[in-house]
Amino acid sequence: MPLIKRRELPLRVSDIMVKNVVTAKENERVREVAIRMYENKVGSVVVVDDEGRPVGIVTERDLVYVVARALAPDTPVWMVMTEDPVVINENALVTEAMEKMRQLDIRHLPVVDSAGKLVGMVSFRDIVDFMAVLMSLTK
């Protein structure tokens, strides 16, 4: 018998996600995307197609790659983005998002609706903030 009883929290990804996601198009330049990340104080930008579906993601790690490889600032973002990013449905449980991020060692999960369109973003920071709130409730 486990020491801690496991219970699913009924909270959904849509309850904690950020709705104003910073996005880019595949042909935008790395410098433009980096500036957008800096100005919006975010660690990733979701690259979307014309229908608003995620086709890639550019993270701080990708920008480190750009600098380490001395790529030109006008390099198209499609050359450095992670294609076909891991996404999660807006109706998934927060615990599922946590597990997915842990298993895949990722810090950003684009959130999609049933049609596959981008509707939000859940980051590691959002999960930590969520857990801090939960822990404060148990005091």
Automatic annotation (TrEMBL):
Keyword Cytoplasm: no
SUPFAM superfamilies, sorted: CBS-domain pair
Name of the protein in its database record: Signal-transduction protein with CBS domains
PROSITE patterns: CBS (PS51371)
Keyword Nuclease appears in the UniProt entry: no
A Pfam family recorded for this sequence: CBS
Assigned keywords, A-Z: CBS domain
Positions of the CBS domain: 17-75, 81-139
Family matches, as Gene3D superfamilies: CBS-domain (3.10.580.10)
